[in-house]
Amino acid sequence: DTLHSRLLKVLGGRYSLLNATFSWLRFFISAPNVFHVGVKERVYVQLGKALLNKRVTLYLEHEETTHLMSQKSSTVCTEEGQIQTVELEVERDKLPTFGDIPYLLLVAEMDGVTGRKMVRVLVSQHRGYIFIQTDQPIYNPTQQVRYRIFTLNHSMKPHDDVFQISIFNAAGNRIMKTLKRATDGIFTNIPFNIPDVSEMGVWRIVAHYQGDEKNAVTREFQVKKFVLPSFEVTVIPKQSYFLLNTEQFTFTILAK
């Protein structure tokens, strides 16, 4: 099966595979090795001639309790070589019941095939990427800190989801905590002022998706008293006077 071989080469190592190649029965199902909680992941289905026009139902279940962890999704292949796609999502509201589980079972049920076909897949709470940017790396006390946050999904596209922002001072005390949602993958904050009596040192802005504290992102900036360098400029003319009809005026500029 040429298509089957091509898929194995392309997907091998990154995808979990369910397949069989009996003389009377052939099917090929591929899915990501890792299912991210709350993210719709694609599962690909290809069936041999004996299973055409027969329904294939896919879902995720708990490895030990067999509780359903996603909605069931079905598809039908009507011709050989056709690849159908279904989307499965690990339901976030079911995770607190079972705790931090590392694996689930991807289950396939096919009309005309006895029993269920299963493969183990990893589960990750990682919901995407967060980037934090400040308008400068060093601030004086009483200055305003302006920052913005970019939220991206696993395809590095703008991702609108709820995330938590915390700000910690140099002593490690949290001075702000709030939940926000990005718009088109960008959140621009209302600037906050650094108090005049603040302890000098490294401050931190920490952000993570709600329920995904393990993948928090940190942006550090310094708070310290500093002044811009000053210098003196002196203009020294070659002559201490000049006439109105003088065509050229020569002088030297010194800066220190």
Characterization of the model:
The protein is elongated, with a radius of gyration of 31 Å. The protein contains 2 helices and 21 strands. The strands form 6 sheets. Strands 3-9-8-5-6 form a 5-stranded mixed β-sheet, with no helix packed on it. Strands 11-19-18-14-15 form a 5-stranded mixed β-sheet, with no helix packed on it. β14 (162-168) and β15 form a beta hairpin. With 256 residues, it is mainly beta.
Strand-helix topology:
Blueprint lengths: L1 H10 L3 E7 L4 E7 L1 E3 L3 E8 L7 E8 L10 E4 L7 E6 L5 H4 L4 E8 L6 E8 L4 E6 L3 E2 L4 E2 L1 E6 L9 E7 L5 E8 L4 E3 L3 E2 L7 E9 L7 E7 L9 E5 L13 E5 L1
Parallel strand pairs: 3-9, 11-19
Antiparallel strand pairs: 1-2, 2-4, 4-7, 5-6, 5-8, 8-9, 10-13, 12-17, 13-16, 14-15, 14-18, 18-19, 20-21
Family: Belongs to the protease inhibitor I39 (alpha-2-macroglobulin) family.
Protein name: Macroglobulin domain-containing protein
GO molecular function, one term: serine-type endopeptidase inhibitor activity
Q: What would a concise description of this structure say?
A:
Helices cover 5% and strands 47% of the residues. The chain is mostly beta strands and 256 residues long. It folds into two domains: 2-124, Immunoglobulin-like (Sandwich), CATH 2.60.40.1930; 129-223, Immunoglobulin-like (Sandwich).
Provide key terms for this protein:
256 residues, mainly beta, Immunoglobulin-like, 2 domains, five-stranded mixed beta sheet, 2 helices, elongated, disordered N terminus
